[in-house]
Design goal:
Order of helices and strands: EEEHEHEHHHH
CATH architecture: 2-Layer Sandwich
CATH topology: Nucleotidyltransferase, domain 5
Structural class: alpha/beta
Largest sheet: 5 strands, mixed
Number of helices: 6
Shape: globular
Number of domains: 1
Length: 175
């Protein structure tokens, strides 16, 4: 009997933001290896690339996953868009594949109707990885509040998990 196995890549998912970037490293089926936020100051793009190089050297990912900042629907700043291009170039130089997900595609993986909020995705992820992420789930943001820096972690984990499940042709549905 022949079995088809999907190769399980080590994934480095990145979520660039105004503060730096959130990251998540996934390995195997759905193992969350490491996660966090790398804050930077000064030349944020140059410092972010330095921190990214350290993560790549440590974890040796086979693929980098990011939000598609070049998509028409993306509302990301010019600096974040440029950082995205620089990350893609750096990954290409190291012969690491880069996969991009639009926000719409991400929501389609997490919600049946494709409609949901970032906080709803973060809640699903905190339930899926309770020991790793449960205590890091920020409170729901009020309209007058800035987004909590911890959301960058959930953005990265969501992208990495969406890539893994899309490869396996599975979706995540709220519990």
């Amino acid at each position: 009997m022949s079995r088809t196995h999907l190769k399980q890549h080590r994934i480095l998912a990145l979520a660039p933001s105004t503060r730096g970037f959130g990251f998540a490293v996934l390995d195997g089926k759905e193992t969350l290896v490491d996660w966090g936020v790398k804050s930077v100051d000064g030349d944020k793009n140059a410092r972010s690339l330095e921190r990214l190089e350290a993560l790549v050297a440590c974890y040796l990912p086979e693929v980098i996953i990011m939000e598609d900042h070049s998509a028409k629907s993306s509302r990301r700043s010019t600096r974040i868009r440029e950082l995205g291009r620089q990350i893609i170039a750096a990954a290409s130089n190291r012969k690491i594949r880069v996969k991009l997900f639009s926000r719409r595609h991400l929501r389609e993986v997490f919600f049946v109707d494709g409609v949901g909020t970032k906080h709803a995705i973060a809640t699903i992820l905190a339930e899926r990885f309770p020991e790793e992420l449960g205590s890091r789930l920020p409170p729901k943001r009020k309209p007058w509040m800035n987004e909590d820096y911890r959301m960058d972690i959930f953005d990265a984990v969501g992208l990495g998990l969406a890539f893994r499940l899309k490869k396996e042709k599975r979706t995540i549905r709220p519990l």
